[in-house]
Amino acid sequence: MFIGEYQHTLDTKGRIIMPSKFRESLGDEFVMTKGLDNCLFVYPKNEWTILEEKLKTLPLTNRDARAFIRFFFSGASEGNLDKQGRVLIPSNLREHSKLDKEAVVIGVSTRIEIWSKEEWESYNNDDNLSYESIAETMAELGI
């Protein structure tokens, strides 16, 4: 399980250090892809496989399903950690997530999200982001 928030910087080659608390659960190989809200999603291989199987069940006749599958898979890249615990973020993914220098790496249960510091701060300061109303919606969903 991935939890927590960590501040990191990208080096000149586009690499970022993965928090040490995430490395063992992440494993030797993982998948990184375009995430929602201008971040990146990083999945351990086993979680990626579960997600992939769910996406395969979506109807190809549904336009939104096709668009989501294209978005998700076209941006996907297999990754691994080097000996220093760094991962190279491909340029297309850095562009998607507006990653330049400062980044925030967060744990979100079964996945990791990588955000540009500016995007993360903007997301958290969004006037439309009301944790009280989100909590009410979660209550409606049974959580």
TrEMBL record:
InterPro entries: MraZ (IPR003444), MraZ_C (IPR035644), MraZ_dom (IPR020603), MraZ_N (IPR035642), MraZ_sf (IPR038619), SpoVT-AbrB_dom (IPR007159), SpoVT-AbrB_sf (IPR037914)
Top-rank taxon, per record: Bacteria
Gene Ontology BP, a term: negative regulation of DNA-templated transcription initiation
Chain ranges of the SpoVT-AbrB domain: 5-47, 76-119
Localisation per UniProt entry: Cytoplasm, Nucleoid
CDD domains reported in the protein's UniProt record: MraZ_C, MraZ_N
Record keywords: Cytoplasm, DNA-binding, Repeat, Transcription, Transcription regulation
A Pfam family of this chain: MraZ
GO MF: DNA-binding transcription factor activity; transcription cis-regulatory region binding
Gene Ontology cellular component annotations, sorted alphabetically: cytoplasm; nucleoid
Family to which the UniProt record says this protein belongs: Belongs to the MraZ family.
Assembly mode: Forms oligomers.
Protein name: Transcriptional regulator MraZ
Origin species: Tissierella pigra
